[in-house]
Amino acid sequence: MGHALGEFEQIILLALVRLGPDAYGVTILREIELRTGRRVAIGAVYTSLARLEKKGYVAHHVGPPTPERGGRRKKFYQLEPAGARALSQSFEALTAMIEDASPSPATGGIRRK
Amino acid sequence: MSAERMTAGKPRRPPRLAHWLVTRLLPPAEREFLLGDLEEQHAHIEQQSSRRAADRWFWGQALRLTAVRWTPPAVEVEMERRKGDSVMQNFWQDLSYGTRLLAKSPGFTAVAVLTLALGIGANATIFSWLNAVLLEPIPGAEAPSELVMVSGTSRAQANISLSYPDFKDLRSRAQSFTGMTMQEENAFALAGDGPPERIYGQFVSGSFFDVLGVRMLRGRGFLPEEDEVPGKHPVAVISYPFWQRKFGGDEGIVGRTITLNNQALTVVGVAPPEFQGSFTGLIFEVWMPVMLEPTFFPGSTNLENRGNRWFTAVARLKPGVTVGQAQAELSTLAQQISAENPNTNEGIGAVVHRFSEAPRGAQSVLRPVLLMLMGVVGVVLLIACANVANLLLARATGRRKEIAVRLALGASRARLMRQLLTESALLGLMAGAVALVITFWTSGLLFALVPATDMPIYLDLQLNTRVLVFTLAMAVLTGLVFGFAPALNATRAELTTALKDESGSVAGGRTKGWLRNSLVVVQVTLSLVLLIAAGLFLRSLDKAQTFNPGFNPRGVLLAGIDLLPSGYTSQQGRQFYEQLIERLDTIPGVTSAALSRRVPLGFGGSSSSSMRVEGYEPAQDEQVWSFIYNVGPDYLRTMEIPLVRGREFTREDKLGQTLVAVINETLVERYWKDRDPIGSRIFFGPDPITIVGVARNSKYRQLNEAPAPMVYLSLLQFYRSDANLHVRTDGDPMALAGPVQEVIRSLDPNLPVYALRTLEGNIEAASFQQRLAGNLLGVFGALALLLAAVGIYGVISYAVGQRTHEIGIRMALGAQPRDILRLVVGHGMLLTGIGLVLGTGAAFGAAQLMSSLLFGVGATDPLTFVGVPIVLGAVALLACWLPAHRATRVDPIKALRYE
């Protein structure tokens, strides 16, 4: 595959793992806000999901109309095998880099990317 | 649903504007899911914390979605495209694309926006004036288009006042109106701490506020019974500013008392803030029932005497009744009244005016000028449009490849047109926004041109909804006008040439060159029309300023006083005048001083009367009449009006002596012919008045009036309580303001002196139309000249750029710089020449239309019609010469290698 995942992409994929079959816009948003404590723009979530879908990492299906959303349907996302692979590759790369490094506030800690 | 509401309280909907924004901006493919998510989370947050937090969150999300111009990922877009061409979606795409494109070339955008903004701003400014004067002549009145002004006519004059008995008869008999009310303006002395203050008010009939449709802010308007018995109900309605200024907005204002001219009046109501009275251009602070008129003017017979004509009426047309029908009815009624009262109403008619065309008020002076200026700014905007269209054309050349590629890839021409027009509409809107800022400053400029006067001039020139809508419409329309031709041109498919990148090819250039050249011709034509109009008005203004009105306006200070509000009887008043004249003469620097009720050539109005001349037999139906000035001793000497025969008034021409008059030459010509007027007698009433002198004619109401008959009466004999001091000096007249006030204070410390001004400033009123038109046309003309010069320069520069290759070849073949110069300048001057010929023709036509506003110059003034084209030609020559000079320095080698 070879595509490195961006941080936000990793977070989204992890959210899909955690949420299982109940992953759609609002739940993904809430999960990320709850776990990371950051404010997330819904547009950013959708943009990343579309990008990930194009790469074949995630797939979506449209659910039935829901009365609590005024008859609007939900767009559910699920992790694809390729996505799971990319996620574990990222995770491995990260752990490999962390090994032997001594993250401390003095050196700025582990740097992103 | 209802169960839900009863238990938990149904979650409210997200903020409507944000919701709408998101709905509009989201691509349809994602809209359903995203909106669902947003609403679900909104409800969630509201439940968890508060509605405010939820709304804030929703707004944050909505703004981020719109601010980053959130576009759907590529896959989805393709799918959406195949589904169909959504107009709204395309629009937003075009808008976002256009915005980015304009941001990429800030120079072009700035020039285009500024050019258009000047054009649109000029339009919005004049429109805001037009709106205040003609469309909303009475701020705060309901449906102003239904309001008409009713005044009278006599055999000699097209417009005179009405008498109260006539008004009552017309009001009770007329079927054309839902209501009719009267209005008469007066100045009053308001008692307070310190010396009394001069304020302006209107006597009105009881239905005044109902007819105008003005609802009271506090209290009530007048009751029917307050319109019946003279002097019985001393009540008043005050204006909002007056309430704020004098009572600090006291909520208990109804029932409080104000004292005007020593009369106590009970305040019964406060008018709404926007209402300033029913006389366009003047501001009033208090309204009283006309039944109080005799209370304020003891001995006045104005309410009973049918021959006393002293006010105008306002009426509201019944739905469906036209001005013509109302006029027909009133004419019939006036004839009836005339037949019933032959003594007073012989030849007296009634006339109905649309309020915007009324002969009194700001509209009478401003209407013709504003209508003309509206046309002028329209032309300015057209010139600006031509300029920007030219810029767009030049730009389109740079974008030919982009457009050609898109056409080749299957974009429809309509789709591309739409995009280009969206871009120009966007430019128009940006210009509209800048224009509003400009207009915010310029709309108040009208006041800067209003001459000095003793009246409280006021026009509501604030930008209101109507002006905003006008500006917006103007901006969009402008965008479409200047964008259409370039868009049409740019999307004309010439794929092969465009794709081959032959940007300078002859084939591609011809049609655009034609369009561009035509635009220059149009610009020159329109600019010339404007400049000639500006020239004619500036010449008129010059003539008006140097015109000899028959008196010497320089070096005279004017000061207004009114003795009646301070409680003077006529006998005390005469005494005061005598003392005043004596003391004024002792002020150092004063060469001469006099009193006169009227000031010539101001906005102040005039008095006239019919009369009888001893020894003159009027023809059948002829009315013998004259204007009347009540003046004190030395008036003619102070004004420097030459005395032809006899003498002028002295301090001895007072009550108890023979009644005397001085008349002007026109009156002599009319009624004495070869007889000697000195010693003969005239009659305004039963008492004979002996003529003691003849004065040279001068101008009284307008600079261009026909010689008018005038009778000067001695103010000490024919007493009036209000007068203007005329004080002549060799130095600066305003320097006398202090000493003159000092003298008045020494006679009566409580007498207010109002409207200290120079005679020279006051008579600017007479040339107000020329001044307004001249000043504004001067500015607009300069603007047009600049725009035309820029337009010519742009086109010639562009042509030189396009023809670099050709010029290189010519030079390589031995052409001299002077040949190149002739080639390039010749091109520009040919266009200019065509424009000048067309423009001169158009200007002849335009000048005929505005000839009634000109003063002292003909509509075909040769100086203007020769001089202005020369100036414009010279500017055009310069604009051509600059790029031409650059062309001569083209290096043939480089030019040939250029492609």
**Total beta strand runs of chain B:** 22
User: Architecture of chain A, according to CATH?
Assistant: Orthogonal Bundle
- The CATH topology of chain A: Arc Repressor Mutant, subunit A
Helix/strand/pairing category of chain B: alpha+beta
Distance between the termini of chain A: 18 Å
The average pLDDT of chain A is: 82
**Taking Cα atoms only, what radius of gyration of chain B do you get, to the nearest Å?**
35 Å
Helical stretch count of chain A?
4
Indicate the proportion of strand residues of chain B.
Answer: 5-15%
Structural summary, described in words:
The complex is a heterodimer of chains A (113) and B (899). Chain A has one domain: Arc Repressor Mutant, subunit A. Helices cover 50% and strands 15% of the residues of chain A. Chain A is built from four helices and two strands, in the order αααββα. In chain A, α1 crosses α2 (25-36). Residues 105-113 of chain A have low confidence and may be disordered. Chain B has 899 residues and is an alpha+beta fold. Chain B has 30 helices and 22 strands. In chain B, the strands form three sheets. In chain B, strands 1, 2, 3, 4, 5, 6, 7, 8, 9 and 10 form a ten-stranded mixed sheet that branches. In chain B, strands 13, 14, 15, 16, 17, 18, 19 and 20 form an eight-stranded mixed sheet that branches. In chain B, strands 12-21-11-22 form a four-stranded antiparallel sheet. In chain B, β2 (177-190) and β3 (197-204) form a beta hairpin. In chain B, α7 (106-135) runs antiparallel to α14, α8 (164-173) packs across α12 (323-340) and α28 packs antiparallel against α29 (862-888). The longest helix of chain B is centred in the middle third of the chain and has 41 residues, at 506-546. The termini of chain B are far apart. The A-B interface holds A 24-26, 29-30, 39, 41-43, 46-47, 50-51, 53-54, 62, 66, 68-70, 72-75 and B 30, 32-41, 44, 60-61, 64-65, 68, 70, 72-76.
